[in-house]
Known about the structure:
The complex is a heterodimer. By secondary structure, chain A is α+β, with helices and mostly antiparallel strands. Chain A contains 20 helices and 32 strands. Chain B folds into 2 domains: 3-83; 107-339, Bira Bifunctional Protein, Domain 2 (BirA Bifunctional Protein, domain 2). In chain B, the strands form 2 sheets. Chain B has a 7-stranded mixed beta sheet, sandwiched between helices. A two-stranded antiparallel sheet of chain B has the order 2-3.
Amino acid sequence: xxxxxxxxxxxxxxxxxxxxxxxxxxxxxxxxxxxxxxxxxxxxxxxxxxxxxxxxxxxxxxxxxxxxxxxxxxxxxxxxxxxxxxxxxxxxxxxxxxxxxxxxxxxxxxxxxxxxxxxxxxxxxxxxxxxxxxxxxxxxxxxxxxxxxxxxxxxxxxxxxxxxxxxxxxxxxxxxxxxxxxxxxxxxxxxxxxxxxxxxxxxxxxxxxxxxxxxxxxxxxxxxxxxxxxxxxxxxxxxxxxxxxxxxxxxxxxxxxxxxxxxxxxxxxxxxxxxxxxxxxxxxxxxxxxxxxxxxxxxxxxxxxxxxxxxxxxxxxxxxxxxxxxxxxxxxxxxxxxxxxxxxxxxxxxxxxxxxxxxxxxxxxxxxxxxxxxxxxxxxxxxxxxxxxxxxxxxxxxxxxxxxxxxxxxxxxxxxxxxxxxxxxxxxxxxxxxxxxxxxxxxxxxxxxxxxxxxxxxxxxxxxxxxxxxxxxxxxxxxxxxxxxxxxxxxxxxxxxxxxxxxxxxxxxxxxxxxxxxxxxxxxxxxxxxxxxxxxxxxxxxxxxxxxxxxxxxxxxxxxxxxxxxxxxxxxxxxxxxxxxxxxxxxxxxxxxxxxxxxxxxxxxxxxxxxxxxxxxxxxxxxxxxxxxxxxxxxxxxxxxxxxxxxxxxxxxxxxxxxxxxxxxxxxxxxxxxxxxxxxxxxxxxxxxxxxxxxxxx
Amino acid sequence: xxxxxxxxxxxxxxxxxxxxxxxxxxxxxxxxxxxxxxxxxxxxxxxxxxxxxxxxxxxxxxxxxxxxxxxxxxxxxxxxxxxxxxxxxxxxxxxxxxxxxxxxxxxxxxxxxxxxxxxxxxxxxxxxxxxxxxxxxxxxxxxxxxxxxxxxxxxxxxxxxxxxxxxxxxxxxxxxxxxxxxxxxxxxxxxxxxxxxxxxxxxxxxxxxxxxxxxxxxxxxxxxxxxxxxxxxxxxxxxxxxxxxxxxxxxxxxxxxxxxxxxxxxxxxxxxxxxxxxxxxxxxxxxxxxxxxxxxxxxxxxxxxxxxxxxxxxxxxxxxxxxxxxxxxxxxxxxxxxxxxx
Lengths: 698, 342
């Protein structure tokens, strides 16, 4: 809200310059966003938090200014008095629901002469960036900015004209709009209303949207001679719903939504009269018609506040009389109660103060937040439970291994467009956003695939050849009508696997990422998580992968994820014109319970080992894993490790067969191996290969 | 074996070593004479053919020979190493080193980890919560009325309703984890909560509908506002450097009372005023306060038995300030040229 420094001086004598005032207000919780010189005035742009409707006016800010500068508020001329004339048309006020409008006041002002505003009034409004319209409108605007109460002037003759010039009885109805009812508002827009919108109506229909904006056909203009002046309290919730429905925030709705001050509702009628008398001396005023003032609204709240509690809460050691004097600066009066407490009377313009903690904040902000010293809490050892530390440690390990393997971590948006959820076999699982910003962000992602492919595409389009990325994020699906949020790992690999100018020349070809790079990265991750022994890979046929180049990842034979070479048609859907892109996803939620991060040192043999290679031609339907398992199960105690080191097919090998070469490492724990026993073991392995797999040795 | 044998070997070795001009050849000579199956070793093998009485003397001489040849080769090696400047095996050592392919952790997660570590060092534990939340945990439990202007800053994505009646949303802050933790546990609590949050903001250089927050709270008997100041002072100095200044301004949040906004002196201009801090010299960095009694009430804690503080901050904003990043979209675009810088 824009506040004029000179205007404030009407209410409080401020001896410090505007910039210093701005600094003090900021440090007391009224953040001054900007402080500008305008002519001989200064304008402070203040951000008012939603709990302080009392500060949406110059009077309110003046109260704060007095408190932070230690000045006294100027005494205002004693209570304003209405000078009503006798000959008035009665106004019948008809409130449909008191909850929407607990208080409504109206009076008729006649004998007006609409014209230019006097200079002082123009200056005040223009300083804070408002355009002067005419004396009547300017006065209502001035009052709003001065004391925070929105008032509205209807052109009385225009209201009469609506009912065919009838002036005998004037009925103002405050009611909810009827479905489909329309009104053209003063901004020229024809608005269709609904029952959520509260309107001011006459017998014929709405003439204003209560607390938000007036109607065009009763607007004050240069020919206006008489007005009906409204000052009311509209329910904050009601005004909030109206303005949300209309998508329109006005100075009025902003204040009603935050609640206006009941006593000011009535006094504003008099304040208008006071200002208008000087500008239109011939105006005459009807009595003020009003609905019965709501009970209790005026009664002041009294609170008992324990000084010890406040000091404890803040980390201060204030004495009771210090507290009383701080509160006094804010017009909050208090007196000692018992030995340790004070009884605080909350002024009616501070509905935000309801409990001791609210009073503590008032004390602290005037004492100065910056004057409160630093301390450190004593955090009891009982505070640490570390319930899900395995989860965080595991995630950390996964990140560490994958980063070391050359994968960079990415974070992609959780919201995706509808077509990016289509990979999901069961579309009913996709979760839609009820109020999406755009078609691009209509659904919660059911997996991490779309994000990874989009990132790959972005990088390809920007000349990045090697894209090796991973993401650890939740995926969202509806399962059995429940939203399931599962933490997943997604991984994408593509491009060369080496960054080696030195050896590349020798290799004479770019070495591309392959299936086994991704599999290996996953395997090292499983190893670090202590679950590698539970993991197996099974062939997967999927609509997103190249046939025969995909696997289901299983843990204890239960599927926990997949990896594979992405099918070209899917890549084309994403606008990616490349191949050899590998993708994997793992469900971390199923992995986490099995993670075993406890490490125990295993002794290794100090004795030399021996290595033997065996190459053979074997039918293609036998898998490497199957061969390895068979040999392992043979139970050769000294066989330490089996590793595949070559696989090839060429013209020399019959169709349906392939050549495999394995290296076998032998080692004994407590002695040096003898040549003979290794030869015997190799013989046993060869026999097995021959009998079980009918291999031909090469 | 006679002295002549030894002398011949010695002579031959000396001549060969003297005539050597490269380290490679010298290496070959070392193998020829000194290896396990080399000439001198061969002489040792023949020692049993010598008369038993002269064996000790013979052995002595052999050892002397071995030592002499070894020293001679070592000396020659030293000489060659210092004199040789151009060698056939010379490489252009100014050519590029072969960089290992390293992946990088995302800068936001890196920052979150660094920040959380500062708090865990102070005794806090890390807890996370789901991104799909209930209206109670996100609003009502935190004393945020559903129809009130104080909700406006927490504009929220809702999940399209299913058959169940519960209204679900994407959490608009990490504070619902406060409710989750306090509903299930009793103080003492010292918790830090990193996580992703959502608000329907159109994406531009400084807005994103998805971003990250770090939330922290500490609840026990006698937790004070001054403790909040102390903890945040330590945290911010650890994160931004010793010379940073901090200030607390009163503010309003429905879930804390008293509430504060915390500024640090601008890390770009050191408080003199620049375009980043809007000429104010201060940067708003977090929101904080003492947990509102209504929040305690909502989780079932006895009135005023405990006090506690809570704070929250936006990770992207901190990262942008710390690393001079001028567009929030960079975090989610995931251009490798960006990711690899951190």
